């Protein structure tokens, strides 16, 4: 039998002694099956001899069932993933097992910062870790969001956690392990992207630089005392840094951050091959940039001097900044906290060096689009947080109204 499956049609059907089916005239593959008991179910036939039950007429309206059938057919045509196999996988994999067995290997091969992605997902384990993929509900996520915000978490931080969870479930759909994303209706919390931009005042800048110099001299003095102790005992002295050389990575790293606005990860991955000394240009490779796009930053006099001095000490190394063992730099949390404490600067993160760079440009009259290009923002929206630092432009716009009075 054929006919458009509607509520009116369903209400008019009378069960027979044998099961029978009605094929929808609007969507090929959408079927209504009627049992002798009177039970009626929606079915989607996605291939010859292959079908899946969508649900009962008692819990799903015809328009909902037709849309679900349309999604099932589209997914099968696009991915060739068998909906029945997907349903089995949904009932097999929990969020935690999916991440560990399927998603983690893919993340480690395709995401630039895999540890960050995986740590955000693990924050969901206490709530959803043991939930089957198909059993994850938007309400569970909304409830957890509310608890995190009530506990004081920043809306932006919570948004990131939800974004990473959504992305993981989308990947499960692409791999045929989930039929649809249960979080499709979950929207991000509103975030004030302007807020208060933390940047160094002139006095804080002087104190930070003084603390860097004091740290350098302290390291030199400790090395001199150590060598004196070694000499008294007949040991070979350790290399000492002259006044024109840096004792380690911290001072040049901070100065370059203040002069280029580079992110911490971009600085950690910076290689000598990325520096064009003849043209005084530094290149941030797309592979290390957050936006994934390569950008070029002209070097200020101080930045050029810092890199020149570092290069003279590099001894053929690949990376500009290295740890004490000569390996790739991976973190500066401990030394940074001691530095800002010594400089008596409060609530100033290393990332705020980037804000300082951008803020100074805007306050000197550099247009926001140029600042956007230097920072590597993918859109002007993020750069607009610095707009208030150029109030004279806003005032000039208002004076245009005065001309009409």
Our estimate of the beta-strand percent is 5-15%
Order of helices and strands: EHEEEEHHHHHHHHHHEEEHHHHHH
Inertia-based shape: elongated
The counted number of beta strands is 8
Number of helices: 17
Number of separate structural domains: 3
Task: Give the strand order, joined by hyphens, for the main sheet.
Answer: 1-2-3-4-5
What name does the CATH topology of the largest domain carry?
A: hpI Integrase, Chain A
Q: Give the uncertain stretches in residue-range form.
A: none
The major β-sheet equals: 5 strands, mixed
Distance between the termini: 77 Å
* Rg estimate, integer Å: 31 Å
Q: What would CATH call the class of the largest domain?
A: Mainly Alpha
Q: What would you call the structural class?
A: alpha+beta
Q: Can you tell me the CATH superfamily of the largest domain?
A: Intergrase catalytic core
Second CATH tier, the architecture of the largest domain: Orthogonal Bundle
* Secondary structure: helix percent: 40-55%
Q: What's the overall average pLDDT, rounded?
A: 88
Short description:
With 405 residues, the protein is α+β, with helices and mostly antiparallel strands.
Plain-language structure description:
With 405 residues, this protein is α+β, with helices and mostly antiparallel strands. The protein has helices at residues 7-12, 62-79, 83-92, 95-110, 114-122, 125-128, 138-150, 155-174, 202-232, 250-260, 264-268, 301-313, 333-342, 352-363, 368-375, 380-383, 391-402, and strands spanning 2-3, 20-24, 30-34, 40-47, 50-56, 275-276, 281-284, 295-298. Helix 10 (250-260) runs parallel beside helix 14. The termini are far apart. The mean pLDDT is 88.
